Amino acid sequence: MLACAGLGVAIVASFGASRWAPSAAAAAHGDAPPPRFSDGMVRFDRAPDEKGFWSLPSANSLIEEGKSAKMDAQGRLANLADASHVAPFQPWALALYEYRQKNNFADDPMHACVGPGSPRAMMTPGGIRIIQDRNLNRVYILYGGGNHGWRVVFLDGRKPPDPEEVVGTFYGNAVGHWEKDTLVVESIGFNTRFWFSNGGLPHTEGLHLTERFSRPSHDVLRYEVTVDDPRAYTRPWKSAWTLRWVPGDVPEYYCETGRP
Amino acid sequence: MRVLLMSLMLLVAAVVHAQEGFPLDGTWRGQRQDGTGTPVTIVMVLSWDGKNISGIIDPGPDSIQIAKAELVPDGWRVKIEAHTKTGEAISFTGAIDKLGAYDRTITGTWTEGARSYSVRMTRE
After folding, report:
1. Which of A57, A105, A220, B11 is deepest in the core (most CB within 10 A)?
2. ipTM given for this complex
3. Is A202 near chain B, with CB under 8 Å?
4. Which residues on neighbouring strands pair with residue A53, listed in sequence order?
5. A197 and A97 Cβ atoms separated by less than 8 Å
6. What is the arithmetic mean of pLDDT over A205-214?
């Protein structure tokens, strides 16, 4: 996080189809197809005898697909007047987003080593692994950034819990299923102790995420998330970005207070 | 009994966890003075459902249902209206301070019947 923040590089966060095209400079395997299990199921993690993990997220903040706003590596808008373009905020949520932007993210829980939660963890540097446990019919997502969080996605057909009956967590309660090569994950039951995106977009305990993971090529993970939080946004909205396959192991890293 | 205790613990945990969402969500505590100068504790529990803010004052057997509550993002101004059991009008108007803090406060005026008091409510 700090390394990225230190760069201070202004980017244009836009999510056109061209963003999914692999960068020739970064790709180690070019357009090689993703590895698969013997039965043909796509692998989101390493093939045998391979080392690598997902990193280098192409986006630094959630922004509604099809919209664009110039922002820096921490999700700070170059022009605060663009705030209303980022997502279909309810008035209070827009005002809180603007407050956090103007306040230089002083209240960001990650400054106190509080975990990023979902889906911010998918844009937090530090490395990500997606482990498919086919015996137990689960997927484990391990996050090297933030405070080494991890989550379990149950693929055994269980129903998601009643949101009113669960204690909210940073990653929610997740169940998933496959749509061809795409892993679709539904999560509810979030707490509000975290900012769910860089840049300070607010959410409430009513947050419902639908995530779609796909691996169009060996080196590219496409991540798409639909945010449905009617207490904070006027309608469901979608954001998407890619991560790159990086050879090696997830680097060791521990958050220290004030240094997320 | 065990189920009840567990339910209460989960409820408390859920309230304690709420800190970064809708700014008024949660439990707020403050004090006013009665006619003899004795401090009287005020507790409000507020909740946002996406369209309306609802809640109660002084949870317990003598709790008072909040009739109307609003949050104006411009200045983070708060206005709450209710009636005592005897029918006296209650209103609380103020503004949120330390918006980004877990223990943010609302500083304002609590009016009950014909009397008004300066009150600071702190979020727990």
Report:
1. A220
2. 0.82
3. yes
4. A246
5. no
6. 97
